[in-house]
Automatic annotation (TrEMBL):
GO terms for cellular component: cytosol. Pathway: Amino-acid biosynthesis; L-lysine biosynthesis via DAP pathway; (S)-tetrahydrodipicolinate from L-aspartate: step 3/4. Homotetramer; dimer of dimers. Pyruvate binds at T45, I203. The active site is at Y133 (proton donor/acceptor), K161 (schiff-base intermediate with substrate). Keywords: Amino-acid biosynthesis, Cytoplasm, Diaminopimelate biosynthesis, Lyase, Lysine biosynthesis, Schiff base. InterPro entries: Aldolase_TIM, DapA, DapA-like, Schiff_base-form_aldolases_AS, Schiff_base-form_aldolases_CS. The keyword Transit peptide does not apply. Its main location: cytoplasm. The lineage of its organism: Bacteria, Pseudomonadati, Pseudomonadota, Gammaproteobacteria, Oceanospirillales. This is 4-hydroxy-tetrahydrodipicolinate synthase. It comes from Marinomonas hwangdonensis. It is found in: Cytoplasm. Its EC number is 4.3.3.7.
Amino acid sequence: MITGSLVALITPMSPDGAVDTKKLDDLVEFHISEGTHGIVAVGTTGESSTLTPEEHTNVIRQVVNTVNGRVPVIAGTGANATHEAIDLTRRAKEAGADACLLVTPYYNKPTQEGLFQHFKAIADAVDIPQILYNVPGRTACDMQNETVVRLSAVNNIVGVKDATGDLERGEALINLVPADFAVYSGDDATAVSLMLLGGKGNISVTANVAPRVVAQAAELALTGHSDKAHALDATIASLHSNLFLESNPIPVKWACSQLNLCQEGIRLPLTPLSDQHHSAVRQALIEAGVLSV
């Protein structure tokens, strides 16, 4: 089972929107040196929706090759068309990913039965560990706990990323699924609390800029050190909120550029962080101890 701090890695781009392969290698090395436990490539934070299938595959392959087995690599391969998600998942397996992360189909708003059949079809088609991803605030599609429980019995489906931020719902899900089925947090602000309730890790946006603290907080939470985990997490609480002042990954990409981790490149329809938010994000980086005054 993959556990701990799993960074939802940005896809670094040059100002014209081209993928910056040099910075991508640098980011992987940065995260490994800072103690990140796993890398999620080309998820929502990695701007998967604006990459071509070839770019998508190339980023996954590059991350896998650069990691070279040092930490697990999870590839974002979700789509709102089942055949497209199957194709991306096959590509990720061929590229050498350890697992795939599949977001609920967005915009077309399937029923719960549609969600079950969608994910079952992908699991049946591609023999690779698969993690479901529920983020209703972004997709307009909410996968209910009962559907996740049904899917937990499907071969190849090994976990779920719960980005609802609803701890009561998350705890109920943890108690409903089998012990070998992982529930991951997809909400930085509540991740430590969910891990203390039995969650297995945090697929984190904040880890892009504060990887060491996010990893250490996860280690503490996973070993039941509640007070220490919460105390450490409190030192980066302002990041958890200010990195979402605009749609992810707009603020975190700007924050990474301030730390010289990437250039200020992002693809339309996403735009660079609004000037009015620069001071708040910069102050959050300073408070977290990752940017000097």
